[in-house]
Write a structure and sequence with these properties.
three-stranded antiparallel β-sheet; alpha+beta; 3 domains; four-stranded mixed β-sheet; 7 strands; about 425 residues; flat; Aldehyde Oxidoreductase, domain 3
């Protein structure tokens, strides 16, 4: 009997959530703010020190920063930066929201993950905090001359960065740039997954019975797979053991879904290994695009569908989405089987190729829905391009998909280009004579 948990949704463990938050957004702004706060502490010491070097520097800077206006300068900088930062980021977020409503909510994720945006945010917040820290330490007899000078120089730099931030945000919101970012994220996540694929099996090879199962107790997405933890648990035990993972990174799960099963002769040992699997496969409330290529693919397919369908009627963006899918399919089909020579007794499904072919097929469906024969031609050209790069199993999948879409293509508007591509596909699938 499967016990149903009362947990409403997934809560990522702190050991997983903290590194992810640092990697995605927090680290760069915190480092920049910390550096500016440290610079503020140094400027306070420099303004209040009585050594000959500090005195000389203050006298030199005093020709440009008045002792009477130094504190007021810091106040103006702090107040102005807070105002400019709040207004600027509010306007930029409106632009991001508009693009996200037209393309996909993943645009928000791309905006906050970009290192340049994090650097700019850290600079504005850190400079304002720097000004407040220096003002709080002002002494009646030691005006913050050095602190005001540094704040003035950094303000000039920050205002220059503001121009780059505005341009960078506009550039990031262009559909081709959004597609490129998703393409790169999917490609990098696929490469990161390679080690997991090489060290595991694709199908079960153990004749042992299943002695233990781990099912989901919550709702969410598979965050990651700690293969090292599973390998450490399996190592040193009986050779007659196999851990079969029934989910992949990024896959959506609900309460009661089967996550993994353990094959072993001893039920107690199987239960112990099942507990290891539960710790090694955490569930997150959101998928992680850095380690999940299929989520990026689904976002590309969603953009292509909404743009190419009758809801948007934007075939240009749909063509860009198809371009991304064709390139990723070409890369991944050329890899073939990624399994390593000596895998662990761990089964992990590799569904990247199947997912990209699924998204490619959806391009024909949306072309039929919107009556856009140009998009159907692009999809057939993609299949024609991918056919020589696919192995036998992938070619069989492509052949099956093309045969299934024939009734859809028959209902498309008459098109010479579409008829030409359909003839080319039939010629491509025709068995070649063996000489």
């Amino acid at each position: 009997m499967t016990l149903i948990s009362n947990r409403p949704s997934a809560r990522t463990p702190l050991r997983v959530r903290a590194p992810r938050a640092l990697r995605e957004f927090i680290l760069v702004p915190v480092l920049v703010v910390g550096a500016l706060v440290a610079l503020g502490a140094f400027s306070i010491v420099a303004d209040q020190a009585h050594g000959p070097w500090f005195t000389g520097v203050r006298e030199l800077i005093g020709h440009y920063i008045g002792a009477q206006t130094a504190a007021s300068t810091l106040g103006a900088i702090a107040t102005g930066l807070v105002t400019v930062t709040s207004i600027t980021f509010s306007v930029l977020l409106l632009a991001v929201q508009q693009t996200a409503s037209n393309l996909s909510p993943v645009v928000f994720d791309q905006f906050v993950r970009r290192r340049s945006n994090q650097l700019y945010l850290g600079l504005f917040v850190g400079l304002a905090l720097y000004s407040y820290v220096v003002m709080a330490a002002v002494q009646p007899k030691t005006p913050p001359i050095i602190g005001a000078f540094i704040a003035t120089v950094l303000t000039v730099v920050a205002l220059g960065c503001l121009l780059f931030l505005v341009y960078s945000t506009v550039h990031q919101m262009r559909p081709d740039n959004v597609m490129r970012q998703l393409h790169d994220r999917a490609a990098m996540a696929h490469d990161r997954e390679t080690e997991l694929i090489k060290r595991s099996r694709r199908t079960s090879s153990s004749p042992l019975p299943v002695r233990a199962e781990h099912r989901s107790e919550t709702f969410g997405y598979i965050q990651s797979v700690d293969l090292h933890g599973i390998a450490a648990a399996v190592e040193g035990r009986s050779a007659d053991v196999e851990v079969e993972l029934c989910v992949s990174v990024g896959q959506e799960i609900t309460v009661g879904d089967l996550i993994g099963r353990v094959r072993h002769l001893d039920p107690r040992t199987a239960e112990e290994l099942c507990a290891v699997v539960a710790r090694a496969v955490p569930v997150s409330p959101t998928p992680d695009l850095d380690y999940d290529p299929r989520t990026a693919l689904r976002n590309v397919a969603n953009i292509g569908w909404t743009s190419g369908s009758t809801s948007k009627h934007n075939p240009a963006i749909a063509a860009q989405a198809l371009h991304v899918m064709r390139d990723l399919a070409s890369r991944w089909l050329a890899e073939g089987d990624r399994s390593g020579p000596d895998p662990l007794p761990v089964v992990y499904p590799d569904g990247d190729v199947e997912t990209v072919l699924d998204t490619l097929y959806s391009g024909v469906v949306v072309a039929w829905e919107s009556r856009q024969h140009q998009q159907a031609v692009r999809v057939l050209k993609s299949y024609e391009f991918l056919w020589p790069r696919a192995d036998e199993s992938a070619q069989e999948r492509i052949r099956r998909d093309v045969e299934m879409m024939q009734p859809i293509l028959d209902e498309m508007p008459p098109s010479a280009a579409l008829d030409k591509e359909r003839r080319a596909i039939r010629e491509l699938f025709r068995p070649q004579p063996r000489w």
